[in-house]
Design a protein that fits this description.
about 325 residues, flat, Cytochrome Bc1 Complex, Chain D, domain 2, EC 7.1.1.8, quinol--cytochrome-c reductase, quinol-cytochrome-c reductase activity, two-stranded antiparallel sheet, transmembrane, binds heme C
Length: about 325
C-alpha cells in the first residue's frame, strides 16, 4: 500500500513538473502587466485585513463574554490547595486498604463526634478493611429502633450489618446548636462535593496555622483556615500529632492521619473504584483485541476490491469479421 501510494505521488509529481506547467508559466509571464500585479496586491491585502478582522472580533467576543465569571474574589474563594500525587487516583492503582483501615479509625475516633457518614452501611466495610466479625461487632455497638410490635411499641435492638451508620446528632438543628450555628456536613460524599476533592480536604485538615496571620479578621467562634472559602471556618483544628494510636504501628502525625482519613473518605464516596478500574482494564484488553481483529478482517475482505484492476478493452475494429471472435454479435 505504501509502495502504491508513493508510486502515485511520484507520478503526480512528474506530471506537475511536466512541460505543460513550464509553458503555462511562460504564457503567464508574457501576459503579465502592472495592472495585474496591483490587483494581486489588492486581493492579498483584502485577505489579510479580513483575517485580522475575524481574529480580532473573535478575541473581542471572548474578552467580553467568554471568560468565566467569579462570584467571589480569589481571596474570598480560599487559597488553592496544593496538588498531591494521590496513589489511589492513578489509573492502575487500587486504594491502599491498610490506609483505609487507619482512615476509618481516625474518622471513628475523631470526626464522628461531629460528622455523620450516613450513606455507608456496615456491610460495605466487610472485605474492604474489616472482617465480617469485626464489622458485626462494630454494628452491634450502636442501637437502632425496631419495627413497631403488636402494641405499637418501638424498642431498641443492636445494629446489624445491613444498618447504616448513625449520625452523632438527632437532626441538623441539634448539630448546629452544638457547633456555634455551623452545620458539620455529612462526609459520605465530601471528596466529590468540594472543589479540589482530596487535595482540598487534606489542605483544610492540615492548614490551620498556630495563629491567624497579622491583619486577618477572624469572627468570634470561627477559626482561621486559609483554604476554607472566606477563611473563617466553624470547625476548629481536629488533628494533632499522636491523637490516635494506630494498631499497625504507623506513627500518627497530623499529616499521616489527614492523608489516611482523606483516602478513607474518598473510598466512602467511591467504594466501587477498585472494581471499576479492574473492569476498565478488562474492557480495554478485550476491545483492543477485537479492534485488531476487525482491522484485519476489514483488510482481508477488502483486499480483492483494493487490488483489482478494471480495464475496458474496446473490441478490435474487425472483431465481427473474425470467425470465433468473442465480440461477435
Ligand atoms: C468538634 C466538631 C468537629 C470535628 C471533631 C470535626 N469537624 Fe469537620 N466540621 C465541623 C463543623 C462545625 C463544620 C462546618 C464548618 C463551617 O461551615 O464553617 C465542619 C466542616 C468540615 C468540612 C467541610 C468544609 C467545607 O468546605 O465546607 C470537612 C471536609 C470536615 N469538616 C472534615 C472533618 C474531618 C475529616 C474531621 C476528622 C478528622 C472533622 N471534620 C472533625 C465540626 C467538626
Amino acid at each position: 500500500m505504501l509502495a502504491r501510494s508513493s508510486l502515485r505521488a511520484a507520478r503526480s509529481a512528474r506530471s506537475i513538473s511536466s512541460p505543460t506547467v513550464t509553458s503555462d508559466a511562460q504564457r503567464n509571464a508574457s501576459s503579465q502587466s502592472s495592472s495585474e500585479s496591483a490587483a494581486a496586491w489588492k486581493s492579498n491585502g483584502l485577505l489579510a485585513s479580513s483575517t485580522l478582522l475575524a481574529v480580532g472580533s473573535v478575541s473581542w467576543y471572548y474578552y467580553q463574554f467568554g471568560r468565566p465569571t467569579q462570584a467571589m474574589t480569589p481571596a474570598e474563594e480560599g487559597l488553592h490547595a496544593p496538588v498531591h500525587p494521590w496513589e489511589h487516583t492513578k489509573l492502575y492503582k487500587t486504594f491502599d486498604h491498610s490506609a483505609l483501615r487507619r482512615g476509618f479509625q481516625v474518622y471513628r475516633e475523631v470526626c464522628s463526634a461531629c460528622h455523620s457518614l450516613q450513606r455507608l452501611p456496615y456491610r460495605k466495610f466487610v472485605g474492604s478493611f474489616m472482617t465480617v466479625d469485626e464489622a458485626k461487632a462494630l454494628a452491634e455497638e450502636s442501637e437502632y429502633d425496631t419495627d413497631p410490635n403488636d402494641e405499637g411499641e418501638v424498642e431498641k435492638r443492636p445494629g446489624k450489618l445491613s444498618d447504616y451508620m448513625l449520625a452523632p446528632y438527632k437532626n441538623d438543628e441539634a448539630a448546629r446548636a452544638a457547633n456555634n450555628g455551623a452545620l458539620p456536613p455529612d462526609l459520605s460524599l465530601i471528596t466529590k462535593a468540594r472543589h479540589g476533592g482530596c487535595d482540598y480536604i487534606f489542605a483544610l485538615l492540615t492548614g490551620y496555622p498556630e495563629e491567624p496571620p497579622a491583619g486577618a479578621v477572624v469572627q468570634s467562634g470561627l477559626n482561621f483556615n486559609p483554604y476554607f472559602p472566606g477563611t473563617g471556618i466553624g470547625m476548629a483544628r481536629a488533628l494533632y500529632d499522636g491523637l490516635v494510636e494506630y494498631e499497625d504501628g504507623t506513627s500518627a502525625t497530623t499529616s499521616q492521619m489527614a492523608k489516611d482519613v482523606v483516602e478513607f473518605l474518598n473510598w466512602a464516596a467511591e467504594p466501587e473504584m477498585d472494581d471499576r478500574k479492574r473492569m476498565g482494564w478488562k474492557v480495554m484488553a478485550v476491545t483492543s483485541v477485537l479492534f485488531g481483529l476487525s482491522v484485519w478482517v476489514k483488510r482481508y475482505k477488502w483486499s480483492n476490491v483494493k487490488t483489482r484492476r478494471l480495464a475496458y478493452q474496446p473490441p478490435p475494429p474487425n472483431a465481427q469479421k473474425q470467425p470465433g471472435s468473442v465480440f461477435r454479435r
